Amino acid sequence: MTFGSYPHFADGTVQPIVWRVLQNTGDELFLLSEEILDCKRYHGKSKDVTWRDAVDITWRDCDLRQWLNEEFFTMAFSPEEQALIKPTCCTDNGEGCPDTEDNVFLLSVPEVKAFTASLGKAWLTTVGTDYAKMKKPDGCSLYVYDKGEQANYVLRNGQKLGCSWWWLRTQGNQPSRAHFIGPGASIRSYANVSLARDGVRPAIKLSMLK
Fold first, then answer.
1. Do residues 88 and 206 lie in contact, with contact meaning Cβ atoms separated by under 8 Å?
2. Non-local CB neighbours of 145 within 8 Å, separated by 6+ positions
3. pLDDT tier, 138 (very low <50, low <70, confident <90, very high otherwise)
4. CA–CA separation, 170 and 197 (whole Å)
5. Residue 198: half-sphere exposure toward Cβ, Cα within 13 Å
6. 137, exposed or middle or buried, with CB in 10 Å at 0-12, 13-18, 19+?
7. DSSP-derived 3-state class of residue 15
8. Labelling 152: which of 27, 29, 36, 163 has CA 20 to 30 A away?
9. What percent of the chain has pLDDT over 90?
10. What range defines the domain where residue 188 resides?
11. Cβ count within 10 A of residue 143
């Protein structure tokens, strides 16, 4: 389904966002963007930030959460669409990490595991839009797989494309790292929060009662 809009092409042309329905309760839809819409660090805004500059950070306090709930939320959704998005209590953000309430969020590790149990793993493998692949002024540049493992490619309109990795909100194996979906649609725990290579697949919950 489509809902909201965001740049999809290198020239900034905006198109409707395509969402995958992860869950339909009858009252609400749990949605995840079908493609990676942008490339951002989990934390860090300056182009001078390198992968070595990772600091201890929680989902609550990271720059990516702020961007999703402020800039992205305002840019991607009209006021009428914003009114349909339900604030979500985000738990499982990492050991010792506080819960948050977000309009837009990233999936957690337990959510990925739960949906994989019911949906399989194919939905974890995705590619970025042309806009997401552009090198940004903040230095972010989406990694695109270009090696020999065929599991890291997908077909789009008859074309074989290398996949990209995407952030999860759950803290990684150190306070300065975050989980991400990596090679072979696997959950990895070691991405420095300052890495400028990983993509963003926003998630939202949409009310069906309004």
1. no
2. 152, 153, 162, 163, 164, 183
3. very high
4. 18
5. 28
6. exposed
7. strand
8. 29
9. 90
10. 2-207
11. 18
Query: Would you place residue 210 in the very low, low, confident or very high pLDDT band (cuts 50, 70, 90)?
Result: low
Q: Is the dihedral of CA 145, 200, 181, 23 positive or negative?
A: negative
Q: Compute the distance between CA of residue 144 and CA of residue 205 in angstroms, rounded to an integer.
A: 28
Predicted pLDDT at 59: 98
The Cα-based distances of 28 to 22, 173, 204 in angstroms read 11, 33, 10
Quick one: DSSP state of residue 105? Answer: B
pLDDT in tens, 39-51: 999 999 999 999 8
Contact 195, 161 (CB under 8 A): no
| CA–CA gap between residue 162 and residue 149 (Å, rounded) | 10
Amino acid at 114: A
CA 102 to CA 100: how far, in whole Å? 6
> Containing H/E element for 110?
helix 109-119
Q: Which residue has the tokens 């995705």?
A: 126
160 contacts 56 by C-beta, under 8 angstroms: no
List the single range of 40-49, 139-148, 155-164, 185-194 with lowest mean pLDDT. Answer: 155-164
Residue 118, both tokens: 């019911």
Give the pLDDT mean for 9-35: 96
Task: Give the count of domains, the chain.
Answer: 1
